[in-house]
Each structure stands twice: as C-alpha cells, then as structure tokens.
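Entry:
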Amino acid sequence: MSTRHGSSEPPRSPDASMTLLNEVYRRPLDPGYAEATARRAAGTGPRRTWRSTAGMVVLAMGLGLGATAATLALRQPAGAVLAARELLEAQIEQRRAEADGQQADISAMTDEIARLQEELLGDEGQSVRDEIAADSVQSGVTAVTGPGLRLVLTDAQADNGDEEDPELRVQDVDLQVVVNGLWAAGAEAVAVNGQRLTAMTAIRSAGDAVLVDLVALSSPYTVDAVGDAVGMQTELARASAGQHLATLRTTYGIGVQMTSQSKLELPGTGLVTLHEAEVPDASSALEPEAGAVRDATGQSLVAGSAGLTRKDGT
C-alpha cells in the first residue's frame, strides 16, 4: 500500500480533469487544417484552379439568391390572406360611409325639427321654447358648455410588467360610483371620455375595456361634469364616492386627479329614440330623474339629496 509521502508515482497536474478543455484551448486549430496550411505555405499544396473558384462563386450566389427568395416569400402574405384583408378594408370603408351618411341625415332632420318647432311656437311660445331647451339639456340631446369639475382616473402600474392585475385597473363599478356621486353632488351634465351620459346610459366592462353606451373606452378615463365645481368637489368628498376615490388612490395605486375647469364642452347625443312611454300618475313608483344613470345590472339609480337610491328602494 502506497503512502502519501515518498510515493514513486509522478505527480498529477492540478488541472488533469480538464485535459480536453486544455487541449482545445492550447491547440484550437484541427491538425488537418494545420497540415494543409503548412503545405500551402511551403508551396506543395494543391493549387486552386479558375474552375473551382468559379464554382464556389456560383454556389455562393445561388445560396444568396435562394435565401433572399425564401425571406421574401415568408414576408409576403399569402394570396388568401391578402384578399381577406382587402375585403375587410372595403367593408370598413363602406360601413364608415354609411355611418357618415346616416349621421348627416340625423343632423339634417334635427335642424328640420328645430325649424318646425320655431314655426309652430311662433312669437308667443317662448315659455314652451325655454322648457324644451331645458329638457334637451337634461336629456343630453344638446351640447352644453360651462364651468365644472374634471376627474381623471388612470390605471395603476403593476410591479411586474409581465403580469396584469385586474385590481390595478379602473373598472366599470369605479366609473359608476364616480358618475353617480357627481349627479348627487349637483352636476348638470356629465361625460366620460367625450361620451355624454343620459338616463339611458349603461356603464359596463368588456374585458380590459369599459363600455359606455357600447363604446369601448380605455385608461385614462376623463370624467367631465358641468356645474358648480367648488360645491361638487365638497359634496363629493363628503359622500361615499369620495371615500371610494381615496381607496382607489391609497390601496390600489390608481391615479385620481381632480381639477376645476373654467370651461367644459360636453357633446350632445342627438335625438333620443323613444321606444315606449306613458303618462305617470301620483301613485307610480319613484322614477329616475334627469341626471340618473343605470348601474351594471341595468337598474336605474336616482340622484337625490340623501344619496343614490334604486327603484326598488334599496
């Protein structure tokens, strides 16, 4: 049995276990390549003829052309895909032209109705004319301009950009609470991202977007309310809507910016389609007032001095 000291065996290299890596590092060139290089330097290697050179050039050009053709073929869309895209673009242009034509017809009919109303009322119908103008503002038919309050809600940024947290986004219920709070605070007209709200407006979610009257909106959400800015801001802070905004800001990191505006311009919705109507009597249930909106379940919410009340009384 051999001992550690005085052994007759030659000492092992410290990196003996890395023989292959050391060999590759010390002699990176293959021996065959090294031998061919030495023969070429000595002038004993085979000489390259013009035929072999021409063949290599032709081969390189062929490979280059083939790679270019393959790249162009991959980038160029297939014929069926291109035809489908052209068909969709044509349909979009057609529908857009039809929508523009219908909008022009609506504007023309609105002007015609206004002219007929003026002719019917004459000089003695000023009181009726004022009542029609007031009702058109409350129903959202006509555009309004005036001072008011602007709230901007912005989605929060997630810590991990690859993961999306629905809790960090502004949801439909948040806009419902804010809008109902503004109505209760005395707003005369409200719009979200330029979409005017009426008693028939529904605010719902659709995936990552929020639908306001079936129009998809995304962050940031700008809520404009025409009215007394100072009074609305005070009442909003006292109500549950103000607490909800504070929770969005502190708990979820959602951006909440509230500013007073000297002039806000809210668009009108145009003529309202009347599906059915009846004359209410004194014994009927509480109906939505002119600034009410509907919640996510479609039930009407009424803005009153005591807050928001459903039609069923809850």
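Helices lie at 19-26, 31-42, 50-75, 79-121, 126-139, 172-184, 229-238, 240-250.
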